């Protein structure tokens, strides 16, 4: 339950902070209104950490820049077209935006900006009531024209105006509903969910980059599964990540297999739990979380119903890696993220061969070599992929993975496994064989790498002898 007494005290402390006082006094001296808006007000009321400060004002961008320049060490006007000026004041970043009302013209992917003069009008055009509150400064008056405080107490996400109008103004707000539901643990009002379901197609006017940004913020939240469920249930996820709702495979009375969609959500939750336990101080690992969510998206395309009621998904790991790379490319993810996610999906089944029978040291080396820099992420994903309710099977798989991690550590200590490479580099290969740069050097390097993986460290002299024998046999 929200404690309003504590919330009011936190608001007062926010208004009294040196940065807020400095900015508020400057705008008051210039004859303009100023208010802290949106997230900082919401977070102060519910006791969440407050990060960057967002202000709104009736001053226009040129006036904002003129006012903040003397009190700041840096200014940036990259958002000037949208009425936003950024500045660094007393070491903190602030953004100050002219009262406005954004909407789309229905044809382009960019919002149309109209500046306003009244704070209440600005607030009711915002996404949700809990974000449509403001604290006027320096007078410290809370402005809440849409009942945001009541919705904070109730834990509900609701739009300040008719959700169909609000989402029509900016369809990305539908994605924000899922993100804030996950971040705050709030329920989405029924009329808001219904509006999302009816307007999913309008997301097409929003640029892929903006959609990607909201997806990343959702996945970085404490409980992204809550938001993903909303996106699937309303049909919105099908507009930009259709492979996830497609995981809800039809199951007939003769062929039985686990619910792939629910399994994937469980894997995501378990991966987040493992990520936090192993790296409690690290930032949320979005590529890992993407891989956990998407690791089985190759199953619908590879599903085969076998006689006797069996179901197979042969090569769904390879198919899923390709699908994930293509989809992330459409969403304008960077190449590193695409590569990491695709690699983890491609490798996520590899361990289960270990669970079925002991691997040689050579097989363990190859597992490490193939995972490369993503080995730790692969450890987490593979462990999270165990969702069986059979306690004996779960314990057996956990013990098997404990064993492979222990063996990897032992081999790493013995052989510097994290940097597996042949014992002769390209220059030495050329010297030993008496050849210049070319294709043969690469072939020789790969041969020596296989020797290294199969036999471990054999020493430079032995490696040279093996190389000469390979060269003679090749010739």
From TrEMBL:
It holds the Pfam family PolyA_pol. It is an enzyme of class 2 (transferase). Its cofactor is Mg(2+). GO terms for biological process: RNA repair; tRNA processing. It comes from the Bacteria. This is CCA-adding enzyme. Keywords: ATP-binding, Magnesium, Metal-binding, Nucleotide-binding, Nucleotidyltransferase, RNA repair, RNA-binding, Transferase, tRNA processing. Residues 260-407 form the HD domain. Its EC number is 2.7.7.72. InterPro entries: HD/PDEase_dom, HD_domain, HDIG_dom, NT_sf, PolA_pol_head_dom, PolyA_RNA-bd, tRNA_adenylyltransferase, tRNA_CCA-adding_enzyme. One of its GO terms (molecular function) is CCA tRNA nucleotidyltransferase activity.
